[in-house]
Amino acid sequence: MRIGAHVDQTRPIESARERGAEVVQFFLGDPQGWKKPELPEGIEAVRDSDVDVFVHAPYVINVATSNNRIRIPSRKLLQQQLDAAAGIGARALIVHGGHVLKDDDPENGFENWRKVFERLETPIPIYIENTAGGGNAMARKFERISRLWEVLSGVTDIDSKVGFCLDTCHAHAAGEELVDAVDRIKAITGGIDLVHCNDSRDAFGSGADRHANLGSGTIDPELILAVVRGAGAPVVVETPSAGQADDISWLRGNLA
User: Fold this and answer.
1) H or E segment at 26?
2) Which of 27, 99, 133, 190 minimizes the number of CB atoms within 10 Å of its CB?
């Protein structure tokens, strides 16, 4: 099992070494902006490294919405992010599930996701990540994730285009019990491709996406370890950076 961290994009491989990370995740540009991806300096070191690289797409991307002024730019930026991430040797691009408008039928959001995989070129897979809050979210509650995968199942070569990223903080905040989360998600998606291993600053079911270092939040540490063991996937801690090295060391020590 390979374990790493989400780090700043300016020196990702160096940051990975400092944390003892075998896996690294970062943004390619402003996570809250619409500009084209920006490649970090020393890109050859990223591509040629023995560290497994993942790229997280900007938070603004929402391909599920019926709002054309958001959905169309989202698809364009998603393609740009896919191409850039593939160019630096990333294994996958992680994207939040997005949401529909208040009065929209969720089926519209599922269909918009299907169109993504039918129309975009996917040089690397897209890992859809579960999210923490929002009643209109596509991937907060596991029942919605189940429906999304049902809709996507009819897309040609879908298994090579899509994967799933399970975030422990998001599931906890969404009100999804972690004790059997791995089994329930695997029954839906067929597998877990990446774990975002985060404690939560807020209570179960709060809907708040606020990460904490492992053991310092509201999630039972044994539940976090059980998720990581059961998922059998690479692990990225997205916790406050000052404690990431300790988080990685704690995971290794308790998973040995």
Assistant:
1) strand 23-26
2) 190
